[in-house]
Structure formats: C-alpha cells, structure tokens
Amino acid sequence: MKKYLHSLDVIFISRDLRIEGWVENAKPLSQQQYAIDKPSQYVLEVNTFFCRDQGIATGDEVRFKDIE
Description:
- The protein is built from 1 helix and 3 strands.
- The chain is mainly beta.
- The radius of gyration is 12 Å and the shape is globular.
- The termini are far apart.
- The model has no long low-confidence stretch (mean pLDDT 91).
C-alpha cells in the first residue's frame, strides 16, 4: 500500500471462489502487510467500505467475468 494514496478494502478469495475474509480501510502510504487467518488464492482491492456498503459476507461466491 506504500504507493496508494487512498485507503482500500482488501478482499481475500479462496481457490473455490468464496470470500474468506477482508481487511477494511487498509491505510494508504503504508508498508504494513495485510492477511487473514485462512488460506486464499486471490486478493481483490476495492474502494474503502465497499464490503460494508454492499453487505459482503464470508462465504459469498465471487465470479470473475471475461477472465479465463
């Protein structure tokens, strides 16, 4: 996050495309490493408070469109 000027939510996604957890409001211009206590295959960065505002929950399914 050391080059980002805005805070983000960081979503961790499992191999079977389920949300395993997220870090809310990750601070910009920081070298802090973010992680959750579960294994994940993918990480998706979205606008701050996206998870809260969209009602995202652990276990929700993720779909990647137009990506092979």
